[in-house]
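User: I've been going back and forth on whether these two constructs are worth ordering. Before I decide, could you fold them both?

Assistant: Sure. I'll take them in the order you sent them. The first construct and its structure tokens:
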Amino acid sequence: MSLAKARKGLKTEKKGGKVSPEQKILNQFLEAPKDKHKKKDKKFKFTQFDPEHADAAYNITVEFMEIANKNPENAIEKVIEYAKKASETSDPELVRHALMMFVTHHPSARNKNLRIPPLIKRSKIITKKSCLSSLLLKNKRLVELWKLS
């Protein structure tokens, strides 16, 4: 069966399907901490558009791939275990980005049909705040237009 056919028939938890243990572990790791917006530590500020940060994420992704290649029978568990250790010493957002690159490109993750959760599930607070602020901004413009007419 081709990968496209496998993904087309893949049911998510929302659609009544079962989520694999590897997918559950991945979802838990990729979810941003709820108190992230309170952090005032400027040491950890990852952006994929900074060449130094992108190189660091690439290097961690390479380490993930080497770990997965050395442990073909339980590659995902070993990689996530290493990611947890790496997130203690380096920027957790950088490690999450590297893990998402690993899931996208490594055959062991693709063969298990692992998916990166949508942004709203990964960082609920940030996306809800931005949605709320955009709604308030739109409503403010509507009120201004209404006052002008």
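The second construct, handled the same way:
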Amino acid sequence: MKMITASVLALCASLAHAQDAADLVLKNAFVLTMDKENPEAQAVAVRGNQIVYVGDVGGVESLTGENTEVLDLTGKMVLPGYVSAHDHVLGSAWSTLGVDLNAAKDKEETLQMLRDYVAENPDLPIVVGQGYNATLMGGGADCR
């Protein structure tokens, strides 16, 4: 009976470890975390599409299972990344600044949105924004 109980416990422990194991482990790396409190690490573990561990090599061992892909990076650098198939980084940044005119339906609404923004931000030396639609201004070269 003791032998069966021990076997069942060992099996349960093995299954629990398999469920907690990472899919990918990067170890012996130079990891720049961009975290002021912990700027560097030596290991990273990934499960599914989530990073589940960043730290030292000793800590990542408990996340390594028999199906974990382990890459020994022998000191190579790992950086956090922003990956996009198509992005306009500067345009994306600009779209968060200033007045957003995308909702304007006509010339008067566009001008009113600009007036409101200027009134709410009187100390700005210039007005920036995005979403200007020249077709709402009545056409022609002089669209004032």
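Notes on the second construct follow. The beta strands are 24-27, 30-32, 40-41, 43-47, 50-55, 69-72, 77-78, 99-100, 129-130. Residues 2-20 form the longest helix (19 residues).
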